[in-house]
Every structure is written in C-alpha cells, then in structure tokens.
Amino acid sequence: MFYEPRNGHGLPHNPFNAIVAPRPIGWISTRGADGSENLAPYSFFNAVAYTPPQVMFASTGAKEDRDGTKDSLSNIRETGAFCVNIVEFAARDAMNRSSGPWPREVDEFVLVGIERAACSTIACSRVAGAPAALECRLTQIVPLEGRANFLVLGEVTGVHLRDDCLVEGRFDITRFRPLARCGYRDYAVVREVFSLSRPGEG
Questions:
Q1: Do the beta carbons of residue 173 and residue 188 sit within 8 Å?
Q2: N or C: which terminal CB in the chain sees fewer CB atoms within 10 Å?
Q3: Alpha carbon 10 to chain centroid distance?
Q4: Which residues form the Flavin reductase like domain (predicted)?
C-alpha cells in the first residue's frame, strides 16, 4: 500500500501515529501567570540534545477557551517554563484521565489525585512520585505547518530521579516500567532491556 497524506489513506483509522511507535510520553506540568496549574500528556515528545540537555514536545490541536492552542502551551507562553514528568506503568490511568479536554480552570493534579511537589529551578509543580522529572526553561516555540501545531523546545535546568530507580549508579527503567504510546488507543510498557555495543567500542 502507498498513499499520499494529502489525498487520504482510505483506511478506517489513520495509520500515521501507529507507524512511529512506540513513543515516549512527556507528562507536561505547567503553571500559568495567574498561578493556575495544568498537567497533560504529550506523545510527540523526546530528548534532542545532550549538552546542554534539551527536550521537545509538540502541541497539536486547540481548545475553545485557549485562543488557538492548549492549556500547556498557553501557560508556557506566559511563564517560559515547564516540567516533563516521566510516566510509569502504575500511573497509566491517571495519565490517561489527565488527557481530557478539561476547562482551563481545572487542576489535573487534583482531578486525577496525583501528589505534586515544587520544582527547584523553575516556578512550577512536578509529579511528586514520578520516576524522573525534567525541569525546563523554554528556549523556542516553533509554529509548524497545519492548524494549531507547535513545537516547544526547552533546556533542562534540573533533574529529579526517584531513588528506587537508581541501581549501582545507573537509572534503571525496569524498576518503574515506562509507558509508551503506540497507535490508535494502544500503549506499550517496557519490562526488559538488552544491550548492544557500537562498532569500535570495547
């Protein structure tokens, strides 16, 4: 099968987001200029550089009460900061519930019953029990082709690691089993890992 997206795919469901999978989920927490807080998952998310450490996520779509965007991006525009919380398998239901199109005044920390903690380098809350949290300072918002598509880039200014996930000096993802997004309504969980040496490595 071959199709050009502009002409449609002819399938019952769009296959595009099932092709690039699994994808890590960035559970983005933000605070608006008025002090209101938001927590929402984004599966167009990844790390993009080591030095300095940088991450990205893409916001697609819009809410009627946010003038052409979503709560997360609107808050980031106001304050220049956000926190990426890593999603573990145990938090799958709370993460999923926080993805709803809730009104801007809804605090998802309260809605889904997730404990918050203060960030150290930015004025924002983080998910207290997350395996890891990346505090970020906004560096760029890049408009993308299409309606309400934006790429958000940030520099990581602080890193929280849950102590039980550190094993012999390494961050062990099998300790918390990260959740990943696949296509449609499908998700995956990492339960085991293996290692490969690059050519030329000892």
A1: no
A2: C
A3: 30
A4: 18-173
Q: Is 175 helix (H, G, I), strand (E, B) or coil?
A: helix
With a cut of 50, which residues of the chain have pLDDT below it?
none
Please state the pTM of the whole predicted model: 0.95
pLDDT at residue number 180: 97
Strand partners, 26: 42, 86
Which one, of 131, 75, 73, 64, lies nearest residue 101 by Cα? 64
- CA nearest 59: which of 157, 138, 175? 138
Give pLDDT, residue 66.
72
User: Of 96, 126, 94, 141, nearest to 30 (Cα)?
Assistant: 126
* Whole-angstrom distance, CA of residue 156 vs CA of residue 134: 6
Residue with tokens 């520099």: 155
Name every residue whose Cβ is closer than 8 Å to that of residue 24 and which is 6 or more positions away in sequence: 43, 45, 46, 86, 178, 180, 181
Cα–Cα distance between 132 and 35 in angstroms, integer? 23
- Give the number of C-alpha atoms closer than 13 A to the C-alpha of residue 147, restricted to the C-beta side: 5
- CB atoms closer than 10 angstroms to residue 155: 16
Report all structural domains of the chain as residue ranges with CATH numbers, in order of start. 21-189 (2.30.110.10)
CA distance 114 to 110: 7
Q: 82 with 27: CB under 8 angstroms?
A: no
